[in-house]
Amino acid sequence: xxxxxxxxxxxxxxxxxxxxxxxxxxxxxxxxxxxxxxxxxxxxxxxxxxxxxxxxxxxxxxxxxxxxxxxxxxxxxxxxxxxxxxxxxxxxxxxxxxxxxxxxxxxxxxxxxxxxxxxxxxxxxxxxxxxxxxxxxxxxxxxxxxxxxxxxxxxxxxxxxxxxxxxxxxxxxxxxxxxxxxxxxxxxxxxxxxxxxxxxxxxxxx
Length: 206
Ligand code: FE
Known about the structure:
Elements: H1 11-25, H2 31-44, H3 47-59, H4 61-69, H5 71-77, E1 87-92, E2 97-102, H6 111-114, H7 119-122, H8 124-132, H9 134-140, E3 150-155, E4 160-165, H10 177-181, H11 186-190
The structure holds fe (iii) ion.
């Protein structure tokens, strides 16, 4: 038999609740507006937005060029400007360069196009080790890179957010932009994974 214990809410969660109820009580914040913002980041913004950008860059070389030259401008072309207006820099992975994104100071992240950051991204271990020993960190994510591949680590901040443009996998020829976007994962756009080739349909045993 197993027993389940409900963990008490963390101190920070309780503080946030207390501040929120004070702001609402004093009429400073409209609870409906808060719900809209939370709904936006939980459901409307997410890695699927970044995946659209990556897929477009894979099929449209001119867009890719603009994206790498001016990330903010090229992303705005797609009408994907959200609540945050931070400058976006897009860094492309190649056969010889692998990019990894971190925020060593806190948890700066391209919210507008990737949604909420994963918990590990905000952890002290990731924030410090991604810079000191990126290859070990990547290996722990299951990504072992040969020495011939240079690893570039980009430190985000409140003014500059980075997005990794992963390499288009082999075996994805002939896929539509939509089908390509479905292959692109959040971690591939942070740089802790590659985009895997599409899985071929499993033959039905005779
Ligand atoms: Fe930060």
